[in-house]
Specification:
By secondary structure, the chain is an alpha/beta fold. The protein has one domain: 3-Layer(aba) Sandwich (Rossmann fold), CATH 3.40.50. Helices cover about 50% and strands about 10% of the residues. It has a 5-stranded parallel β-sheet, sandwiched between helices. The radius of gyration is 18 Å and the shape is globular. The protein starts with a helix and ends in a 10-residue tail after the last helix.
Length: about 200
């Protein structure tokens, strides 16, 4: 049993490394997402996140990094995880159905120029798909974090980060790494604008 357990560890580590290496080939899409986030924040907009299960946890995690801080001192940046208010989630699910739990909040809270990040390993979660559809309808910039192929969300995203992996866990691990890099990028640029002594001059 110990040998079998050790093989699980070795296999998981190897597939994790292979999966996250994809991000080195996706720097252009990551940079595009980072720029649209920073542009929205500079213009008084906000970043919204939504997803289910582990993707809900990622949504809350990343929103917290922006409202709080990632690695540098700066002002809090407006970001909302649409996964946290149980009264809203249960009321909307009860009155309209679970597929509407995020789109209803986008309708109420989002404005043109905001950024909505939908996270779904399949790319087909109906409530995340509905949120992106509603966001596009009101002029929100849409970002999709998905697994292989992008699913239905691929056609609704202005910016698509599709991780080419078959295991949900590996996709989720890569999503949170990508999210951390985006927070780091926004953190650096915003902190520099507040205090040029943060580092060498950088260009947005």
């Amino acid at each position: 049993m110990n040998r079998e357990g050790e093989e699980v560890f070795r296999t998981t580590i190897a597939t994790h490394i292979d999966t996250v290496r994809q991000l080195s080939e996706k720097t252009e899409v990551l940079a595009a997402i980072a720029r649209v986030m920073l542009s929205s924040l500079r213009s008084g907009g906000k970043i919204l996140f939504c997803g289910n299960g582990g993707s809900a946890a990622d949504s809350q995690h990343l929103a917290a990094e922006l409202v709080g801080r990632f690695r540098r001192e700066r002002v809090g940046l407006p970001s909302i995880a649409l996964t946290t208010d149980t009264s809203i989630l249960t009321a909307v699910a009860n009155d309209y159905g679970y597929d509407s739990v995020f789109s209803r909040q986008v309708e109420a809270l989002a404005r043109a120029g905001d950024v909505l990040v939908g996270i779904s390993t399949s790319g087909n979660s109906p409530n995340v798909v509905a949120a992106l559809e509603r966001g596009r309808g009101i002029g929100v910039s849409t970002v999709a974090f998905t697994g292989r192929g992008g699913g239905k969300m691929a056609h609704l995203a202005d910016h698509l980060l599709a991780i080419d992996a078959s295991e949900t866990a590996r996709v989720q691990e890569t999503h949170i790494l990508a999210g951390h890099m985006l927070c780091d990028w926004v953190d650096l640029h915003w902190a520099y604008e507040e205090n040029p002594k943060v580092g060498n001059q950088i260009s947005a």
